[in-house]
Amino acid sequence: AQKVTQAQTEISVVEKEDVTLDCVYETRDTTYYLFWYKQPPSGELVFLIRRNSFDEQNEISGRYSWNFQKSTSSFNFTITASQVVDSAVYFCALREETSGSRLTFGEGTQLTVNP
Amino acid sequence: DAGITQSPRHKVTETGTPVTLRCHQTENHRYMYWYRQDPGHGLRLIHYSYGVKDTDKGEVSDGYSVSRSKTEDFLLTLESATSSQTSVYFCAINSGVSSRDTQYFGPGTRLTVL
Q1: Is cis: bond before B8, omega within 30 of 0?
Q2: CB-CB neighbors (< 8 A) of A35 in chain B
Q3: Whole-number Cα distances in Å, A38 to A45, A64, B63, B77
Q4: How far apart are CA B69 and CA B13, in angstroms?
Q5: Inter-chain contact B59–A47, Cβ cutoff 8 Å?
Q6: Over the stretch A70-112, which tens digit does the pLDDT of each residue have?
Q7: Nearest to B43 among A33, A47, A105 (CB)
Q8: Dist. CA B109–CA A26, nearest whole Å
Q9: I need a labelling partner for A21 at 20 to 30 A (CA). Which of A76, A82, A93, A102 fits?
Q10: Cβ of residue B45 closer than 8 Å to a chain A Cβ
């Protein structure tokens, strides 16, 4: 069965600090897909990134970067030089190839960036 | 913007009453989903649809039913609402024709059952 663990329930940082959000997953499939979503205080869910299990390249998008390591079943998310607008709940999610459409979410990490 | 709307956006109802939430999409997506979000649980899949009149259960389907009579609308019904169904409900679509594609979410419906 698939499972996603986001061990950090809440993180608080001061603006301009770097912060890493952890995501550890469990799956028996060899093909799977990993996602990160952002939920700002306004409540909508915003897609950030999708990573396929056969592509272990790390990705950078502006201040955001993602470190995918199959050896440790982790897909961590780093925000460099955090800003107040980064304050949100961040969700990691997993979809197994054999589970069809089912997305399994972690419980989320509440990130607060203080000025 | 994936062209997803949900109605109503907020609803307060009483235990035992029926409730229907509507998800509407404008881009002819094949796959549609209903999730609920609760503190400490992230988002959990209730039901999903892979075409008109084709639906399947998710991990928390008890107490819920769905219908999809046309591509653009996916309805979630609580036949007899209970307080445990107080939650935020999100509809989602798949961006492509495959179940592998990325899911995009609607704005959510906050339901309170008194």
Answers
A1: yes
A2: 102-103
A3: 6, 12, 29, 27
A4: 25
A5: no
A6: 999 999 999 999 999 999 999 999 998 887 778 999 999 999 9
A7: A105
A8: 30
A9: A102
A10: yes
Arithmetic mean of pLDDT, A39-58:
91
Give B5 to chain A, closest Cα distance, Å: 12
Q: What is the pLDDT of residues A13-29, one digit of tens each?
A: 999 999 999 999 999 99
Query: Which pair of tokens denotes residue A71?
Result: 């050896």
Side chain identity at residue B106, one-letter code: G
Asked if B103 is an interface residue toward chain A (Cβ–Cβ < 8 A), one would say yes
What band does B1 get if pLDDT is binned at 50, 70 and 90? low
Alpha carbon distance A25, A32 (integer Å): 11
Q: Which residue has the higher pLDDT, B97 or A58?
A: A58
Strands (DSSP E) found in A22-81: 24-26, 32-39, 46-52, 59-61, 64-69, 74-79
Strand partners, A33: A52, A95
Q: pLDDT value at position B99?
A: 63
B34 — contact with chain A (CB < 8 Å)? no
Q: How far A45 CA lies from chain B's nearest CA (Å)?
A: 6
Cβ-contact B65, B83 below 8 angstroms = no
Residue A89 tokens, joined: 């709940």
- Give the model confidence (pLDDT) of B16-72 as tens digits: 999 999 999 998 898 999 999 998 788 999 999 999 999 999 999 999 999 999 999
**Cα(B70)–Cα(B1) distance, rounded to whole angstroms?**
21
Tokens in use for A62? 């502006």
